[in-house]
């Protein structure tokens, strides 16, 4: 993530609109603390429906890191590295 934050167009790989990139960069540079959580959505034709937000389940960390990294690598983003 650090590489993406430092690169001028790095956050575009994550589909973060230019108008929102400072919302990501500024806390990163300040080293703000963060929470890891997982949103579960369902689609039924129209708009997505939020099923739950989970920040305390045992699967939150793997779902928020490894599995999302694999998904991003499948989409061939420039910072898509899977260890």
UniProtKB/TrEMBL annotation:
Transmembrane annotation, as ranges: none
Q: Does the keyword ATP-binding apply?
A: yes
* Keywords, comma-separated and alphabetical: ATP-binding, Ligase, Magnesium, Metal-binding, Nucleotide-binding
Q: Which GO terms describe its molecular function?
A: ATP binding; ligase activity; metal ion binding
Which InterPro entries does its entry note?
A: GSPS_pre-ATP-grasp-like_dom
Q: Where is the Glutathionylspermidine synthase pre-ATP-grasp-like domain?
A: 3-75
This protein's name: Glutathionylspermidine synthase pre-ATP-grasp-like domain-containing protein
**Native source species:** Tanticharoenia sakaeratensis NBRC 103193
